[in-house]
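Pasting as-is:
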Amino acid sequence: MPVSFEKEIKRRRTFAIISHPDAGKTTMTEKLLLYGGAIQMAGSVKAKRSKKFATSDWMELEKQRGISVTSSVMKFPYKDHEMNLIDTPGHQDFSEDTYRTLTAVDSALMIIDCANGVEAQTKKLYEVCSLRKTPVLAFINKMDREGKDPFELMEEIENTLGISVTPVTWPIGMGDRFRGVYHRLDNKLLIYDKDAERSRPVPLKDLSLDSPEVVAELGEELAETLQAEIELLDGAGDTLDRDRYLRGELAPVFFGSALKTFGIEPLLEGLITLAPPPLPREAQERAVDPMESKFTGFVFKIQANMDPAHRDRVAFMRICSGKFERGMKSHIVRLGKDQRLGRPTQFMSQDRSLVDEAFAGDIVGIHDPGVFKIGDTLTQGEKLHFTGVPVFAPEHFARVTLKDPLKSKQLNKALDQLSEEGAVQVFRPINNNDQILGVVGVLQFDVVQYRIQHEYGVQVTFARLPYSAARWIFSDDEDALDEYVRAQSHLICDDQHGQKAILLDDLWRLNFLKERFPKIEYQATSEKI
């Protein structure tokens, strides 16, 4: 392969941002884009009166509530590197979307609020990264406010998440006394100035932390504290071992304030120097190397109506190997047929631009005429099946009722499209004409109801149902399956793909059914929808 091809792939960094709601994830996304020159002005999520909304939150509901409920993909350049950033939903009710998104990245950036430490959703999302052995960088945010002691935070990350940590930057003071950070690898101070756009670097070269220059810059008390803390870290802390980081065993830690745009530069430098370029991908048949000349990719997300004026559908594809070119034909392995990949786009939130070419590591949105499904593998002819894009059994259920019976056609279209996106799962009982929606998190009902009304013009009401689990059912013995379906027909549904599933009001019932019908198998996840 030509050198330029390999160089292009090595320039890419594809990462997701994970955090608990309100830890500052959306603000961080904005500031990274700001540094990359992708946006001129960062709009705060909270600034609702000024109509400035987060660049990464494109859905009207997200703007109203100040939360991210969909994953958005953004690309920006930084120092001769191409950064592909995926902003994941922070709310736990959208963890399924987040899980699938994490299958498309090579590393993750974990944001932690210095006052709250490691919160529930951070822990959940980190566990997904840990399962996939995804390398994680951590950013301790909001250092310009009072929070936990930095050593306490380090210990909390290690104990709660079970990963070793090593600070790359270390805070000087906190809250009103916050003066900046000391960069341990570069041996320099980055001074925080409330009124400045960016940090003021003070290179220390051969100076020690007790030198008169440092004391003059920080004052005697802060300089002494900093020196003692760094000596303690150097003596007892983990050293930065990139191999351990890449294996997911060590998290390099950075401190700063996303809102005040402080500490972002060293973090970006860390993403360039530490985070991996595109990694090999596991398929059922073999591992696929990003440097292979032939194009391969997989669909990890489908989004309908990103442009409500055009009722479009976009399939988000992670390129795993080779080079993608606009208008190229690709083989959809599941269907066994070729498809021209039309109108390929890359995104800056909802602003999109057509792309002529993209390389392994890039995320490209392709026009979906209704043929793609989440988990689809695309190749140049080889029969490959990329693994690890799961669908989870829902835990909350509701019956959909139309306010205007004449709009049943529009409702069916809405449910078909939203289920293909993975936003909701649709179950149709075999005994009646009900439509039952299943979701992993309750807030998804609000989003689905909002979207059915605003994107498809259909008014619906949801009546919650007492089920708490669904399981897909299988059997090698067709007669046994038929008998089971007849016996449990009041609980059996077809999902949106025609697969039989059973709805359960309690999981203990499953044990009873397993004893009574031993030939039936149950699945709580399916690898592909």
